[in-house]
Each structure stands twice: as C-alpha cells, then as structure tokens.
Amino acid sequence: MNTSEYIESGILELYAIQGLTPAEMQEVEAMCAAHPEVRAELDAICASLEGLAEVGKLNPPPALKTRISSQLTFATEAPVHNILPGETRVVAMNSSMTPWYAVAASTMLLIASSGTAYHFYSKSQSSEQELLAIQTKNSVLADQYQNVQKASFEITEAMAIMERADAKVKLMPAKPEVTMSAMVYWDKANNKTYIDPASLAELEEGSQYQLWALVDGKPVDLGVIAVDFRNRPMYEMKGVEGAQAFAITIEPMGGSAGPTMEKLVVLGKVAV
Predict the structure, then answer these.
(1) Are 91 and 142 in contact (CB under 8 A)?
(2) CA 134 from centroid of its chain's CA atoms
(3) Rg of the chain (C-alpha set)
(4) Where in the sequence is the domain holding 251, given as residue range(s)?
(5) Whole-structure pTM over 0.70, yes or no?
(6) Pairwise CA distance, residues 259 & 147, whole Å
C-alpha cells in the first residue's frame, strides 16, 4: 500500500481518536516517522479535532442559557434514593451531559468510517473493471484459439486431399496479360474435385470465378468458387468423370450456364 492509499484508508483518523490497538498505533507512528506526508496528514487531523474541541467548549450567552432552562420540563420527578452504607451510587448520564470530546470522537469516527468505506468501494470498482478486462481478453483469446484450430484442421484436410488425388492439374494463364494460376486436385476413385484458388486475383464486386471441366470437347460446370476464397486453402467443387482439362472463367455473381470465353483466365490439361 502506498502512502496515498494509507492516508485514504482512515487509519490516521482512528489513531487521532484513540480507536486503534497498541500494535496498530505503533504502526501508524512508524509510518509517520518514515513518511513526512503521513505525519503532515496526521497533524492536520489532530488540528481539526482540536478545532472541534474548542467549539465544544464555547459557553452560550447567559440570556440563551436562561431561555433554554425555562423551557425544560420533566414529566416526572426522579425518585429520591437514600444511599446505604457501602453502596455505590450509579448515575445515568443524560444526553445533554455528553462531553465535547465524545462528540468530537464520534464525529471523527464517522469521518474515518466514511473514508474507509469510500476507499474500499473504490477498490471494489477497480477490481470489477479489471475482472471485466480479463474476461474480455479471455474471450478474444478463446476466439483466436478457435480460429487457429479451424485453420489447422483445414490445412490438415487439404494435405490429405493432395495425397489421395489421382490427378494434380496446374491451371496456367490463358492469356499473356494474366498473371495468376490455380491447382485442381481430382480424386477419380471417389469422383471428387477440389481447387486451391489461393493464387487467383481478387475480383470486383458482382463477379465470381467459375470452374469448368472439358469432357469430350464440351465444357461441364463444376460450380462457382467462393467469393471469400482466400479464407480457406482448399474448396470442394462438383464431381466429374472423364475430364481432359480444367479451366476457370470470370462470370457474373452466381455463375453462368456456359463459359464466357473472352473472360477465360487459366486452364490446364490432365496428364494422360
């Protein structure tokens, strides 16, 4: 605990009104000896107490005292009790007889209690904010972990597809101005076709890549490639049998019934 927190804890007020154990009072005295700012705060508290004491000792004007006395009434007269020899007389203290220092002590105790309560309330608020920050951070880390797991699974799955593919066809640029490429993995035994589109360029909004297979000289639609194709290493397309080549064109969103040849970007033949 630093000196500011120590001062705000309320322990100095309790010291000033003698509300601490001897061990706690020794601790306060040690803190005052080691830290001038703590000593200065304690002196200020003691000065305030002395000010309260002086207020409590002020005598009211005689006229006011007479006026108050004339207004005091008692419902019953206190019974007279004769003190027997050896008997100790106990006198109940009326609230009007409460000494000034008791009032001052009660006031300072209330101030100290309020200061301590505020100190711990502030600590509680700070702890709640720290807990919320930790929970938020843990949530972000959990999401990141799930994303890493998903990516790891997709990469493992893609590697398995590459290994069992009967044909690996690299699609190369169909025109001089085209600089992209793609890989098709054809699993003939299971009639499955996969594509790795990572090297394809991003398209303008409203357009989509579409994969075709050439079977007996005719194009066969194998489906459009996902718009967010960079999010995964491999995509499964439609199955095909007897393909001699594969090609990719740029088509309107959702694909076309037949390839737009002027927008052919990459193609590749299946090795015999």
Answers:
(1) no
(2) 5
(3) 45
(4) 167-269
(5) no
(6) 36
- Residue-wise pLDDT for 94-125, tens only, equals 444 444 445 555 555 555 555 556 556 666 66
* Residue 133 tokens, joined: 């920050």
CA dist 194 → 70, 161, 218, 248 (Å): 107, 8, 20, 13
- Cα(236)–Cα(157) distance, rounded to whole angstroms? 11
Q: Contact at 8 Å (CB) between 229 and 133?
A: no
For residue 173, report the phi and psi dihedrals to the nearest 5 degrees. Answer: -55, 135
- The enclosing domain of 193 has a CATH number of 2.60.40
In a domain, 160, yes or no: no
For residue 247, which phi and psi values (nearest 5 degrees)? -150, 160
Do 212 and 221 form a contact (C-beta atoms < 8 A)?
Answer: yes
Report residue 85 as tokens.
């020899």
Spell out where the chain has E strands: 167-173, 182-187, 192-196, 207-215, 218-224, 235-237, 245-252, 264-269
Does residue 115 sit in the same domain as residue 15? yes
| For residues 239-255, average pLDDT | 94
Whether residue 243 contacts residue 213, with contact meaning beta carbons closer than 8 Å, is answered with yes
- Secondary structure class of 124 (helix, strand, coil): helix
174, 124: one domain: no
Contacts for 70 with CB less than 8 Å, ≥ 6 apart: none
- Give the pLDDT confidence of 59-92 residue by residue, as tens digits: 555 654 555 455 544 444 444 445 455 544 444 4
Kindly state the tokens that stand for 169: 């066809």
